[in-house]
Amino acid sequence: MMKDNLQRLKIKYIIFITIFFTILYKGAEFYTRTLDYVPSYFMAWEKKIPFLTIFMLPYMTSAPFFFGTFLTIKDEKKLNFYVKQAIFLTVVSIAIFFIVPMKFYFPKPEIANPIFNFFFYVLGQLDSSFNQCPSLHVSFAFLSIAIYWKEMKTKLKYLIAIWGFLIAISVHFVYQHHFIDFVGGFIMFLITWYIFPKFIKSVKK
Questions:
Q1: 104, CA 20 to 30 Å: which among 46, 71, 86, 133?
Q2: Residues 163-176 pLDDT 10s
Q3: Cα(146)–Cα(141) distance, rounded to whole angstroms?
Q4: Burial profile 164-203: b = 16 or more Cβ within 10 angstroms, e = fewer
């Protein structure tokens, strides 16, 4: 009975986070589109990063990779706190998007392969060149890796961690984020994983 309740709670959380994330993310994107000028920040060496369509495969698995973490958590208390971490990460990142709006600078080249061309079409509908730093793609990839690594007891977690890392770095090769966004996303993950729990504990004392 308790197991069924936990499964229902997981489904409710997945639905809630999906709606919550979409509203905030699209809200920030809509706001940025209304601005007359949105800057881009990148370093010269980033122009040498190749555009590799194959990295669209890990990039597109970001959402299922994140939601898969819910399946690994067997304790309701851990699940509740994990959701709080996800909400914290999202709210702070979206707030930064409003305060410091940015956009991706490099244009995407033409894609000959019809399958990957379709993938990038879908990406264009779901994502945008705005909402850059910190990269939520990167933040959630590392947050998911941390959960899988903590909760899983089999060696499969090594393969999952590698896939998660591919998701994180894919933002460069599909021309979706600059390096500063990657760094910002990783820092946001560190704050969410290490500092946020300590803050919550200090508040409860």
A1: 86
A2: 999 999 999 999 99
A3: 9
A4: bebbbebbbbbbbbbbbbbebbbebbebbbeebeeeeeee
* Model confidence at 63: pLDDT above 80: yes
CA distance 177 to 57: 16
Is the distance from CB of 197 to CB of 59 less than 8 angstroms? no
Taking the CA of residue 197 as centre, how many other CA atoms within 13 Å lie in the half-sphere pointing to its CB?
A: 9
CA-to-CA separations, 130 to 33, 66, 95, 176, in angstroms, rounded = 8, 21, 13, 9
Residue type, 35: L
Give the residue ranges of DSSP H helices in 100-191.
114-126, 136-151, 156-173, 179-190
- Report the predicted TM-score, pTM, of the whole model to 2 decimal places: 0.90
Locate 160 and state its tokens.
Answer: 């999952």
The two structure tokens encoding residue 168:
């994180």
| E strand or H helix that includes residue 55 | none
